Amino acid sequence: MKNFKRFALMFMFILVLGVLAACGGSDEDTAADESNTEEGTNAEGSEEVSGPIAIDGSSTVFPIMENLTYTYNQEHPDVNVTVNSSGSGGGFKKSTVGEIDLSNASRPIKEEEMATAEENGIQLEELELAYDGLSVVVSQQNDFVDELTIDQLKQIFLESSDATMWSDINPEWPEEEIKIFSPGHDSGTFDYFNEVILEEQPMKEGENTTLSEDDNVLVRGIENDPNAIGFFGYAYYAENEDVLKVLGISEDGNEAVKPNPETIQDGSYTPLSRPLFTYVNVNAYKEKTQVRDFVEYMLNNAGKAAEEVGYVALPEDKYQEQLETAKSWAE
């Protein structure tokens, strides 16, 4: 009898423990489910985003977008973001026919490009991401040029100019052929330089001119040749200032100014300061949750990304104003 009572007590004790464990497990499972639900939502409380996002366009904007997509993917690994850099014009060729979701640009969209988009039923909307100072650079091996006037830039780059030697620009400079490194014709940087410096006149091309949509190709060419000169976005100079020398630019007899975050933002680096853009396919923004989520993430983090890669952030209220505008596209 004693053994039977002892067995019954042990059985009840085990049963109670089992019930308590089951209750504890239920609470833990509920907490885990709630945690998983919280981790699997975006800012609007919807399910975790996934799917592809296609971005192309300006090589100048590329470092900003590369930074943003990397940090975004840390939070959203199921979103497959591809970023290419075929130039501003190359990006618009794709965005105006609906091939990509975002089109990066270092110049505003042209009227004919917007007309093509409208003909194809594509609504493209502009967002500013940062400020840039288009930088004119030579190699650190160059010990004779520190600054140039706008007129001297025209002498160097214009097809109509007879200047081919550095000594043609300044008799005190070497009798060495000038080697030009320039973004290609699909580049918004080329378009901008062509507009504000060359005034839409043809640039020199030939054996002493290298054109490339890849700014890193231009960097490598200039750094190894003391007689080379070229131009591209400020971030590529900032990343390579140990091998490149940025030149001061003077306009209308004023003191030469070099690009840096202060002169770019306050506009004193003129006429080569400019905004950088991305153009959003509004159809994709409305229809693809991952595109909408990324665009909102982009506007909340573009300033930080711009500064990390060497550009100049917009005022924070400008990003927030654009964010509210973007959200209205989905209404």
UniProtKB/TrEMBL annotation:
**Similarity remark:** Belongs to the PstS family.
Extract the NCBIfam families matched here. Answer: ptsS_2
**GO-annotated biological processes:** phosphate ion transport
Its job: Part of the ABC transporter complex PstSACB involved in phosphate import. Involved in the system for phosphate transport across the cytoplasmic membrane.
For this UniProt entry, which residues form the secretion signal?
Answer: 1-21
PROSITE patterns, per this entry? PROKAR_LIPOPROTEIN
Q: Where in the cell is it found?
A: Cell membrane
InterPro entries hit by this protein: PBP_domain (IPR024370), Phos-bd (IPR011862), Phosphate_ABC_transporter (IPR050811)
Q: How the protein assembles, per its UniProt entry?
A: The complex is composed of two ATP-binding proteins (PstB), two transmembrane proteins (PstC and PstA) and a solute-binding protein (PstS).
Q: List, alphabetically, the GO terms of the cellular component aspect.
A: plasma membrane
Q: Where is the composition biased (Acidic residues)?
A: 28-37
Keyword list (alphabetical) reads: Cell membrane, Lipoprotein, Membrane, Palmitate, Phosphate transport, Signal, Transport
Q: Does the keyword Transmembrane apply?
A: no
Highest taxon, organism lineage? Bacteria
Q: Which Pfam families match?
A: PBP_like_2 (PF12849)
What membrane topology does the UniProt entry give? Answer: Lipid-anchor
Principal subcellular localization: membrane
The GO terms this record gives for MF are:
phosphate ion binding
Write the protein's name.
Phosphate-binding protein
**Region annotation (Disordered) ranges:** 28-52
Annotated PBP domain residues: 43-300
